[in-house]
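User: Please predict the structure of the protein below. I'd like the answer in structure-token form so I can feed it into my own downstream comparison script.

Assistant: Understood. Taking the following sequence of 157 residues as input:
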Amino acid sequence: MPDIENQPTAVYRLYASGDRLLYVGMTNNPDVRFAFHSLTKHWWHLVSKREIEWHPDRCAARRHEALAIKTERPVHNSMHAAADPHDTPLRDARTRLSTLVDEVRVEHEPRWLTYFGKRAVAIVEPAFHDEAVENERIVSALREVAPDLYERLASGG
């Protein structure tokens, strides 16, 4: 089985009526991804058109996806999306996170971590993810990198 990083990978766009861009994503299997979205995305019923463009590998698709999200501003993407003016308190954090995601996603996928029953996304190497599940390193890193976010998460807010 070929390494997923070296497989052709699609960047897809999902539109509502009137060509309103709802979502940009990437996958190496659009049919499976669309089936998953149909079960998990509350806005899936709005999709009236799909566009798919293939890239030679996952790295090229990641770069194209990030650029498309930043420039085309789909309604339901949050990763890579620019903050709106009304998000002033979160603008800097979102900008830093978006930049970090762009840099890290070239090599690694974001992972979900659970800590004391709370789930948070982390952008880490797979080996670190496995270790973080067993200890508190990710929480310490979050406390150092984003103390306000850490306090908000720790308080359940």
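That's the full token string. The chain has a mean pLDDT of 75.
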